[in-house]
UniProtKB/TrEMBL annotation:
Name of the protein in its database record: Large ribosomal subunit protein mL43
Name of a matching Pfam family: L51_S25_CI-B8
InterPro entries: Ribosomal_mL43 (IPR039927), Ribosomal_mL43/mS25/NADH_DH (IPR007741), Thioredoxin-like_sf (IPR036249)
A GO CC term assigned to this protein in UniProt: mitochondrial large ribosomal subunit
Any single GO BP term: mitochondrial translation
Annotated ranges, domain Ribosomal protein/NADH dehydrogenase: 42-115
Family the entry assigns: Belongs to the mitochondrion-specific ribosomal protein mL43 family.
GO molecular function per UniProt: structural constituent of ribosome
Subcellular location: Mitochondrion
Length: 160
């Protein structure tokens, strides 16, 4: 149901409707983030913020989110990034080069709050999978039929 439209930047922007995660537990919230991996270089200056985040904030994050598995992968000469894996199989990567520990904390928290669904441009603000069986409402819906017919004829004559 999603259309792909190429934007001015050449990137493909998907359009669609909002979807909810239906397997989100019965009666309780289930965080959709399954695993988070921090990849960074131990020696690079661009990874300084990630190293600071790992040293000062990562244990607090793990304590607050016990259902999320956290991996820390230091590798030489790679760009700092966080890779988030969700229950629906989606994988999102955010590059963290030259970011402070506070900015990284905001990025990680936004990954926790996401549902794992791809970001889409909304076609409409309202959508339903089950439209009304009564039909669409019009100004003539609850009027007597003789009044409705007279008004419709009057509107047709005005439109001409």
């Amino acid at each position: 149901m999603a259309n792909h439209i190429v934007g001015a930047t050449g990137r493909t922007v998907t359009s669609g409707f909002l979807k909810s995660v239906l397997q989100n537990g019965v009666g309780r919230y289930v965080c959709q983030l399954q695993r988070i991996t921090l990849k960074f270089c131990k020696a690079s200056g661009q990874s300084r913020g990630v190293r600071d985040y790992v040293e000062n904030h990562l244990l607090d994050f793990a304590a607050v989110n016990p259902g999320v598995v956290v991996y820390v992968t230091p590798k030489p000469q790679i760009h700092a990034r966080v890779v988030a894996e969700y229950l629906n199989g989606e994988i999102h990567t955010v590059f963290l080069d030259k970011k402070s520990a506070e900015e990284i904390q905001q990025h990680v928290q936004s990954l926790v709050w996401r549902s794992g669904q791809p970001l889409v441009r909304l076609r409409k603000t309202q959508h339903t999978e089950n439209p009304s069986i009564q039909g669409q409402w019009t100004p003539f819906t609850n009027r007597p039929s003789n009044t409705t017919a007279a008004l419709e004829e009057k509107l047709k004559s005005l439109a001409k």
